[in-house]
């Protein structure tokens, strides 16, 4: 009923910027806390950033000061602005969030992920 679709990934040089988007679609009543995770090759998935329904944000230490998470409630979309990217940011980035459907069912959803490669 609900899908999360990431976009905006790709190849960028060290020091560059990218903005990821996560668009929710389907029978959405409301979006709760949303987050971004990432998984590098051969490593476990790790949390990157979160934003509450009230707009409060929190970040992993590895991205603090470089990444900014935001949300557009009217568009059911969450963003991750990534600046000063480093090679170690290379990962598949996943959108995650708790969404309440029009059936008033609250479920945790994951997107399929999008690849970000930081390389010269």
Structure description:
This protein is mostly beta strands and 120 residues long. Helices cover 0% and strands 60% of the residues. It has strands spanning 2-7, 10-12, 18-26, 28-39, 46-51, 57-59, 67-72, 77-82, 91-101, 106-110, 114-118. Strands 2, 4, 5, 6, 9, 10 and 11 form a seven-stranded mixed beta sheet that branches. Strands 1-3-8-7 form a four-stranded antiparallel beta sheet, with no helix packed on it. A hairpin with a 4-residue loop joins strand 7 (67-72) and strand 8 (77-82). The chain is elongated, with a radius of gyration of 14 Å. The mean pLDDT is 97.
Q: Would you list the SSEs in sequence order as H and E?
A: EEEEEEEEEEE
Radius of gyration, in Å, reads 14 Å
**In one word, what is the shape?**
elongated
Q: How much of the residues is beta strand, in percent? A: over 45%
- As a percent range, the share of helical residues equals under 10%
The computed structural class is mainly beta
The main β sheet shows up as: 7 strands, mixed
Number of strands: 11
Give me the number of helical elements. 0
Unreliable spans are: none
- Arithmetic mean pLDDT: 97
- Head-to-tail CA distance between termini: 40 Å
